[in-house]
Design brief:
Layout (H helix, E strand, L loop, with lengths): L8 H31 L4 H20 L3 H18 L7 H22 L7 H14 L11 H4 L5 H6 L2 H12 L3 E10 L3 H13 L3 E8 L7 E10 L3 H5 L8 E7 L13 E2 L30 H10 L8 H30 L3 H28 L1 E3 L1 H17 L4 E6 L4 E3 H6 L1 H15 L3 H6 L6 E10 L2 E8 L6 H10 L11 H7 L21 H10 L3 E7 L3 E9 L4
Parallel strand pairs: 7-9
Antiparallel strand pairs: 1-3, 1-4, 2-3, 4-5, 6-8, 9-10, 10-12, 11-12
Length: 565
């Protein structure tokens, strides 16, 4: 990546702050997508969010001159666009290509952080070739499809719809949903908040397909919108969501409706009044049964809070927090000095002044304690951010090895210093890999020994005093300590098996180069692992221990300080 060397240090830091957040978001949402793929029910909102993340990373990398990341993001964006347009089916092969693209993007971003010295041109070319192999030729324009024609949409609306919006219309019709138009009129001074309020209410009972501005009768003071919306609800229910007669709900059609025989009926407002509009007013109430519960529109206060929350988060360099913590430490020393002065004054007879000064010092001490606690809390992030990465690695390795593994989490809200979470990420992933590769048996073997065919890895985190304990437990076959002892004897690490306790045998797996696996794979068997795990955890003043029972599983217990500050 030759372009990395030309980027200024400040620019690289700005790029990394955004890029790392995007790839983390992608990883989390791709894990959700894989779960949905297994159930066969894909969320358009999730697909859109993943698509936008890839698009954002492409633009960000291009702006900062990282052409390789931009190119790969662009190709991933094309793949995701075809997926959300319904041109591709999300099968295991496509999911593997998407995950592979994300893993390479993560690696490329990490190489920027490490100085960009490792070129990965060949890997990028292979990944792009796999993406292109998945891409299907674009289908004919969907505008000619009869289901869209039966909706009777005006030309101005049809012309404004994107290919994706046309696809969403057809998908809703195919699934038996009804299509509605929700015409709204808002004052210019508050339309963004009011539109958010209406959209949020609609999203709770269907899919907002498109939001298009339209001509207003009072253009100087108002702006109108037409919201195309797919839902299983009836016209009466949707109109009943709103109290304003400025919101008009019109039924356009569904897969069962015949546009020729539909009787003409007025559209409905929140007050059941008719209003003419640019879109058709003929209404045939859908026959699809509505859910038992009705969703209510969110309040203006909730909408305002949602809008505000987007601007209430700022990124702070961890180095600046360290500097601030050092200043707090110096203030604590200064406070201690003043406290000493107050004591000397009291001893020398200035009791009145000493008492007043002592009270002030106590107040200062309380404020400094609050400040110190506040700065430390800024450094803290939930361990759950680490869990998201674990989900991806479990899904990938279990599929590669043909094993069925369920990952369970406890204590996701437990907080740790951000630097500690980052530093234990690799050790945690290695422990997870070992659990799947060495611990969890194949489905056939598990069934033959009376276990559920699906293995379980449980990760739990909890605070214990001034430490956080993270436990990684599997229900696999556990460590074969006799095999560990035999391997150690063969390698010359011990001279007598009989004198070696089980506790000592467990400690052997932390020796450099030690492995009980004879077959080398991408996952394990290279003798590089558990010693690095222990060393990396020790580097953040932590420690790791193992409990194991043959045939029942193993538990790794990682004890860490809450903060490095």
């Amino acid at each position: 990546m030759s372009e990395h060397g030309t980027s200024s240090h400040k620019a690289v830091k700005e790029f990394l702050a955004e890029a790392e957040e995007i790839v983390d978001q992608l990883g989390s949402e791709l894990a959700d997508l894989a779960d949905m793929a297994d159930s066969g029910d894909l969320s358009p909102d999730l697909l859109n969010s993943i698509f936008r993340a890839a698009h954002s990373l492409k633009g960000l990398a291009g702006m900062f001159g990282f052409a390789d990341i931009s190119e790969l993001s662009h190709n991933m964006e094309n793949l995701l666009d075809s997926l959300r347009l319904g041109k591709l089916n999300l099968d295991q092969k496509l999911m593997a290509v998407i995950f592979g693209s994300h893993e390479l993007l993560t690696s490329l971003v990490r190489s920027v952080e490490e100085g960009g010295s490792v070129a990965q041109t060949d890997e990028i070319a292979v990944c792009i070739a796999r993406i292109n192999a998945c891409l299907a030729p674009p289908p004919e324009k969907l505008m000619s499809e009869s289901p869209l024609k039966r909706l009777g949409l005006p030309d101005r609306v049809l012309g404004a719809l994107t290919e994706y919006e046309e696809h969403r219309l057809l998908d809703n019709l195919t699934k038996g949903k009804s299509i509605f138009n929700v015409h709204t009129s808002f004052e210019l001074t508050s339309f963004d908040q009011e539109l958010t309020k209406v959209s949020d209410a609609l999203k709770k009972c269907g899919e907002v397909i498109s939001t298009l501005p339209s001509m207003s009768d009072n253009m100087d003071t108002h702006i109108d919108f037409d919201i195309l919306f797919g839902s299983s609800r009836s016209l009466d229910e949707l109109a009943g969501l709103f109290e304003s007669d400025a919101i008009v709900v019109t039924f356009l059609g569904n897969s069962a409706a015949d546009p020729v025989s539909r009787p003409e009926q007025p559209a409905l407002t929140g007050k059941d009044t008719a209003r003419s509009g640019d879109l058709p007013q003929h209404v045939s109430t859908p026959t699809v049964a509505a859910p038992a519960t009705a969703s209510l529109p969110v309040s203006v206060d909730e909408a305002n809070q949602s809008a505000k929350s987007m601007s209430r988060t700022v990124r702070v360099d961890i180095g600046k927090l360290d500097e601030l913590m050092n200043i707090v430490g110096e203030l604590v020393l200064a406070q201690s000095t003043i406290s000493g002065v107050a004591t000397r004054m009291r001893n020398e007879g200035f009791s009145r002044m000493a008492i007043d000064l002592g009270k002030a010092v106590k107040g200062l001490e309380r404020k400094l304690t609050d400040l110190q606690k506040g700065v430390m809390e800024i450094r803290m992030i939930p361990v759950g951010q680490l869990y998201e990465k674990m989900s991806r690695i479990v899904r990938k390795i279990s599929r590669e090895q043909g094993k069925k593994v369920e990952l369970k989490f406890l204590g996701a809200d437990t907080e740790l210093d951000k630097l500690i979470v980052e530093d234990i990420s690799d050790p945690m992933m290695h422990i997870i890999r070992n659990a799947i590769d060495h611990g969890i048996e194949s489905p056939e073997k598990r069934l033959s020994i009376g276990k559920d065919e699906k293995g379980t890895i449980r990760i739990s985190a909890y605070q214990k005093g001034n430490h956080v304990v993270i436990e990684v437990e599997d229900d696999g076959n556990g460590l074969d300590l006799e095999k560990v002892k035999a391997k150690a004897l063969h390698k010359g690490l011990i001279s007598d098996i009989a004198s070696l306790s089980d506790r000592d045998a467990i400690d052997l797996i932390f020796l450099p180069g030690f492995s009980t696996t004879d077959k080398v794979s991408e996952v394990s068997g290279r003798g590089v692992g558990m010693d690095v795990v222990r060393n990396n955890i020790a580097a953040v003043s932590g420690m790791v221990d193992i409990e194991t029972r043959k045939g029942e599983g193993s538990r790794f217990i990682i004890t860490l300080p809450i903060t490095l500050a």
